[in-house]
Amino acid sequence: MNALLHALQPLFAPAFTLWGAPFTWLELVAFVLAVAMVVCNIRVNPLGWPLAIISSLLYFALFWNSRLYGDAGLQIFFVLIAGWGWWQWLRGTLADGSALPVRLLPTHLRWRLLAALALAWPATGWFLAHYTDTDVPWWDAFPTAASVIGQWLLGRKFVENWLAWIVVNVVSVGLFAYKGLWLTVLLYTVFIAMSVLGWRAWLRMRAVV
């Protein structure tokens, strides 16, 4: 891991300074790719998935360097699930073999996912508190656990993925502000607005499928 961070050190050089805080090239490139990814997701464009892979790898390095190990590990999960999500959007089907549409989550699945979050959050927080040197284990754990659920919902084209991302993004804004990652704070603030737009757009799509 130290070797990887050492190799990426040139990208940690400041690109510019704003409000008295330096913004690195790595954070800047990841920011642009992440915004493009969400735009593609709103439009149900599969190109969002390869963009997710690249931006997630960059954010992995950024978060690990900031001792946000839960969020760093989450980026590796995003890389892995992006391949699955890409396949789902290109070839995914329902049980009857029909193409995967944008749709609402069945009630029974909502309760199961809430139960999964109730278990995953404390489990992740406990792991981070006992096996890493992070100073925000429980705060870091919540968006980590909730993002796993949001990513699964996105891959299966459930409208509710946008509600999950709204919650994740709101919590993450405070977390990244605490860590001084101000460009990422701006990114996740933009994500909140884009998630609302995504929710409304997918509801309209759902009405015609």
Question: If you had to describe this structure to a student in words, what would you say it looks like?
Answer:
- The structure is a single chain.
- With 209 residues, this protein is mainly α.
- It is 73% helix and 4% strand.
- The chain has a two-stranded antiparallel ribbon with strand order 1-2.
- Helix 2 runs parallel beside helix 8, helix 5 runs antiparallel to helix 6 and helix 6 runs antiparallel to helix 7.
- The N and C termini lie far apart (46 Å).
- The relative contact order is 0.13.
Concise summary:
By secondary structure, the protein is mainly alpha-helical. Helices cover 73% and strands 4% of the residues. A two-stranded antiparallel sheet has the order 1-2.
Note the run of SSEs as H and E. HEEHHHHHHH
Q: What is the count of structural domains?
A: 1
Number of strands: 2
Overall geometry comes to: globular
The Rg value, from CA coordinates, equals 17 Å
Major sheet: size, sense and barrel closure? 2 strands, antiparallel
Helix content: over 70%
Strand content: under 5%
Distance between the termini: 46 Å
Strand order of the largest sheet: 1-2
Q: Spans of 5+ residues with little confidence (pLDDT < 50)?
A: none
Residue-averaged pLDDT, rounded? 87
Total number of helices = 8
Helix- and strand-based class? mainly alpha
